[in-house]
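Quick illustration for those who missed Monday's session on complexes.
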Amino acid sequence: MTNIVILTGAGISAESGLGTFRDKGGLWAKFNPAELASPRAFAENPARVHEFYNMRRENCVASSPNAAHLALARLEQNHLGRVLIVTQNVDDLHMRAGSVNVLQMHGDLLQAKCAKCDVKWRAALVMSKEDYCPGCGSQSCRPDIVWFGESPYHMAAIRTAISACDLFVVIGSSGSVYPAAGFVTAARGLGIATLSINLEEPSRSAAFDHVMVGPATQMVPRWVDQMLIRKGKK
Ligand code: OAD
Ligand code: ZN
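Prediction with zinc ion bound:
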């Protein structure tokens, strides 16, 4: 029985119409992360930061899970071992596809949190710097996103799951942002089999035992079919 941990990045949601960050024409080519994705940027210009995440929230709710998200949900439902998705994505497409075992390490676009008291609630579609926190009443509402310089969520659970898995898969992530970028090396160091599924060859190709190159909507269903056939269960 194989336990599988799958790290997903922006590439899995690209074919749902949500932009990646570092590809040509990606979000960080159009926008400056230093002005949008750090606590300092938010302190300096909360309206600009809200505008960016409002735009992304609007795109997110208008999008739908694609064949790759759906295939991973099918894997979780039918695979005999444990399947955990660790996602760097802040969209909700894995959950809408039906995946249950999902850890959102970079936060949740559909959630708001108070920068003062840490209370969280479901974000309005359009957030503004004038919004009041339902917990403490202050006007310091921010998206529940892990920004540069902040600690990703669920790190202990992620490390435990990786050390107990038999296969570690990276789908649609450039491997540029730590700590997520270091997971594959950690898995490799523990003797765990590793697989990359990406539009391109991975930059750290030596870290992967297996590589599938192509769009996620084609490669992920193909890989899931292989996994389920191998177990005699489709
Ligand atoms: P990147 O934009 O860095 O990388 C996207 C990856 O997806 C690249 O390796 C592409 O080759 C691949 N890709 C693009 N389209 C694809 C497709 N259709 N099928 C398969 N692969 C495809 O995005 P991430 O690695 O997710 O953090 O970026 C990590 C973090 O950087 C994000 O979570 C975000 C960003 O700053 C925060 O905002 C905190
Ligand atoms: Zn508060």
